[in-house]
Structures are given as structure tokens and as C-alpha cells.
Inverse folding.
């Protein structure tokens, strides 16, 4: 017995080593689960505050570009709104009597947020936003910029959110070609932050370089027709069953500052219907 | 450990985490090389059986701290724990016998060539672990090789630079 205790004591560093390796492997293996735990919410509040400090300097330096982007977007939206208003006015003139009620509200709500941390160089990339559950953010909400899709909220603590980037092979976004509406998952290959791949398309598909890739709206995370990127090269098929297309992303992932988070109020209903 | 040593290691820990999180993680030279200088902390830990357990906890904490600032939990922790565990054997290989027992690995105590060889093996092991674990989600052989090679080169340059600003707690 004494010898056994001595033996254990003498080799305690082995035991400790194995325990630590076990803990780290468990963390790697159940990463998403741990990220959603209460402990990580506390840690995220702390790291988020640290990132906010460092981001305040960076954001100040980028104010000019951000302002330009925002006013460009406002101009575009104003044009669209005035077009719609003109259309509605015409519509009312044409059929005054039998006017069906216009939809009062869109199910999608937008919340503005700022990116305070962002990686593009790893094989699994994540972003951190400066808003969280207190501001109405929650898991499975889409994240966009002026130019296109960024990712999806994975988990929110009270003031910060972790976003899984489309530069992450664990996130497969359902997208389609604008010209012919063929849809498939968008999957990143882990190499270049400017390109990704639209996969699982039928082999006979016809498209052209420069065709726009947009969200399909099937997943209830994003509205339909949000721009993602353009077709960079023609479809290739490795196994003769499915073809994949290289897509150049609209969003410059090395320079993301302001984003919008989109929440879908009908999402729960849609998921419930799909489950049954 | 002396008070000077305690301040030195606390300062080094905080400095390396800060640099890693705010500077090195954003660097991506030639599309592949990202320095990970945090392994320098493990290189510089005190040597000897009496420090073994403390070193283990410290390296695990270092890796976990870096992981907590974004990225996948456990990757850096695993790499740091592994590297620290093989360190005593590596030191036995690289350190000549006439060195006194209580020292910290440095160019001063080990000589430039031996220290850099020792640091190289440590850095290589650490980076290889990090990138191989990352590659589990997406395997790309040449990408993996380029990433490891590029990052090891950049980190070794930084380790050599750090050694020139050396402040030795033992002196």
C-alpha cells in the first residue's frame, strides 16, 4: 500500500498530464456546447469588454470609410423606397375598389451591431459582436453587411455575441444562383478568405462567370435574395453526381466594421412546421 | 521562486497573451504564417522537478487564456500542455552536463546554437499540434505543411528577438 502511494506520488505529473490532455480534447470535441455554457457567458462578457477597448481605437481610424459606406447605403435605400412608393401609388390608382390589404409588416427585423473581433486566418473562423441578448440578439440569427452575408449568431451572452463566419466549414449556408434559382449549400474550403464554393448542384447546370449568388431563404435565417458573391469559375464535378462552383464573396472579411443582425419572427413557426 | 521571478513570469504571461490576442492573431504573412510567440513562455519556465507541477498548471492556463479570446477552446491548451510535458526530456538532450542545476533556458546559459535548436523543437511541436488539430475539421496536406513551416520561421525570428532583450530572473 505504501509502495502504491509512493508510486502514484512519484508519477503524479503523468496523471496530471493525462487529465489536462483529456480536458483539452473534451473542450475541442464539444466546443459549441462549452461555448453555450453559463461559464462562457461570464468569460465572453470579460473578453468582449477587452475587445471593445481595442476596437474603439481601430473604429476611430476607420470612421471615414464607415461613413462613406453608410451614406452610400442610405442613398441606395432611399432610391428603393421612392421606387416602391411610386409603385404603391400606381397600384392604388389602378384598382381603387378591390384593393387587397398590403402586408403591414415584414417578419424580418434588423439590429445594428459592430464587429469587435474577427478572424479570417484559421480553418474555423468566428466574429464577436458588441451586442447580445439584452439588445435582442440570439442564436441562429443572420449577420449581414452593406455588401452581403457575413455569418450567423452562434450564441449570445447579455452584451456580446459570437458569430460563426461563412469562412467556417461548420457553417453551411443555403444559397442559389440568381439566374436559374438552383440552390445548394455554400461551403468554405479553408484556404482563401476571398473565395468559397457553392456545392451539391446538379451536373447539367448552366451558368456564367459573373452570375450573382444569393441566399435561398430556405433556412429561415436570412431573407431570400440577400447577395453573397459572384460566380468566379464555371461548374466542376469531381464525382459526376454533383457540381460545385467557385464563388467570389462580396464581403471583404479583412475589413468588417458595422453589421446588421436580422431576426426572423416566423422562424419558430417555420421550424415547427418543418418538424411535423 | 524569488519575487523577481514571480514578477518576471507574471509580466511575461500577460505580455505574451496580449501580443497574441491583439497582434499576432491578426498577422497572416503570405497567406500562411501566423506567429505564436506564447510558446516562448513555456521555453523560459524554470527547470527542475520541483517546478514540474506548477509549470503544468501555468502552461495549461496560458493555452486556455489564449483560447478563450476567440477561436476553438482547447487547441492552444492541448499544444501548450504537450510541449511542456516533453520539455524536461528535450532539455536533457540539449543541455551539456556542466551546467548548474538551477537555471532558465537562455542563450546565456545554453549557448546560442543549443538554445535555438531547443527552441526550434519546442516551437515546431507546438505549431504542429495547433495546426494538426485545426486540420481535423478540414484536411489540406500542403496547406498544413506551409502553415507549420511559415509560422515556425516567423515565431523563431521572434524568439531570437526576445532573447536579445533578455531579462534573466536568475541574475
Amino acid at each position: 500500500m505504501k509502495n502504491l502511494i509512493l508510486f502514484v506520488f512519484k508519477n503524479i505529473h503523468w496523471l496530471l498530464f493525462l487529465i489536462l490532455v483529456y480536458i483539452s480534447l473534451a473542450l475541442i470535441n464539444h466546443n459549441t456546447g462549452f461555448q453555450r455554457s453559463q461559464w462562457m457567458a461570464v468569460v465572453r462578457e470579460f473578453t468582449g469588454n477587452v475587445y471593445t477597448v481595442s476596437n474603439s481605437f481601430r473604429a476611430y481610424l476607420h470612421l471615414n470609410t464607415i461613413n462613406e459606406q453608410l451614406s452610400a447605403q442610405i442613398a441606395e435605400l432611399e432610391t428603393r423606397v421612392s421606387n416602391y412608393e411610386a409603385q404603391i401609388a400606381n397600384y392604388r390608382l389602378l384598382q381603387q375598389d378591390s384593393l387587397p390589404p398590403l402586408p403591414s409588416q415584414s417578419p424580418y427585423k434588423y439590429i445594428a451591431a459592430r464587429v469587435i473581433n474577427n478572424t479570417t486566418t484559421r480553418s474555423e473562423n468566428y466574429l464577436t459582436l458588441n451586442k447580445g441578448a439584452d439588445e435582442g440578439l440570439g442564436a441562429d440569427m443572420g449577420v449581414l453587411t452593406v455588401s452581403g452575408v457575413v455569418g450567423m449568431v452562434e450564441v449570445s451572452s447579455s452584451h456580446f455575441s459570437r458569430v460563426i463566419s461563412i469562412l467556417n466549414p461548420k457553417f453551411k449556408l443555403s444559397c442559389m444562383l440568381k439566374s436559374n434559382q438552383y440552390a445548394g449549400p455554400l461551403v468554405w474550403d479553408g484556404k482563401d478568405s476571398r473565395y468559397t464554393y457553392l456545392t451539391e448542384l446538379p451536373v447539367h447546370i448552366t451558368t456564367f462567370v459573373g452570375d450573382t449568388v444569393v441566399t435561398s431563404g430556405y433556412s429561415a435565417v436570412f431573407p431570400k435574395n440577400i447577395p453573397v458573391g459572384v460566380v468566379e469559375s464555371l461548374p466542376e464535378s469531381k464525382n459526376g453526381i454533383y457540381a460545385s462552383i467557385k464563388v467570389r464573396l462580396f464581403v471583404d472579411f479583412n475589413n468588417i466594421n458595422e453589421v446588421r443582425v436580422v431576426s426572423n419572427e416566423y422562424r419558430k413557426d417555420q421550424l415547427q412546421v418543418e418538424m411535423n | 521562486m524569488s519575487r523577481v521571478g514571480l514578477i518576471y513570469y507574471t509580466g511575461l504571461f500577460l505580455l505574451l497573451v496580449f501580443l497574441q490576442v491583439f497582434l499576432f492573431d491578426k498577422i497572416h504573412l503570405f497567406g500562411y504564417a501566423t506567429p505564436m510567440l506564447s510558446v516562448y513562455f513555456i521555453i523560459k519556465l524554470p527547470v527542475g522537478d520541483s517546478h514540474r507541477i506548477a509549470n503544468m498548471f501555468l502552461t495549461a492556463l496560458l493555452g486556455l487564456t489564449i483560447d478563450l479570446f476567440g477561436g476553438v477552446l482547447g487547441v492552444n491548451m492541448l499544444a501548450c500542455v504537450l510541449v511542456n510535458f516533453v520539455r524536461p526530456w528535450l532539455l536533457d538532450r540539449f543541455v551539456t552536463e556542466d551546467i548548474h542545476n538551477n537555471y532558465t533556458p537562455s542563450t546565456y546559459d545554453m549557448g546560442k546554437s543549443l538554445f535555438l535548436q531547443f527552441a526550434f523543437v519546442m516551437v515546431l511541436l507546438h505549431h504542429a499540434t495547433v495546426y494538426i488539430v485545426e486540420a481535423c475539421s478540414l484536411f489540406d496536406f500542403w496547406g498544413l505543411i506551409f502553415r507549420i513551416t511559415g509560422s515556425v520561421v516567423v515565431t523563431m525570428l521572434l524568439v531570437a528577438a526576445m532573447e536579445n532583450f533578455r531579462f534573466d530572473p536568475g541574475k
Q: What stands out?
A: The longest strand of chain A covers residues 108-118. Chain A has a mean pLDDT of 85.
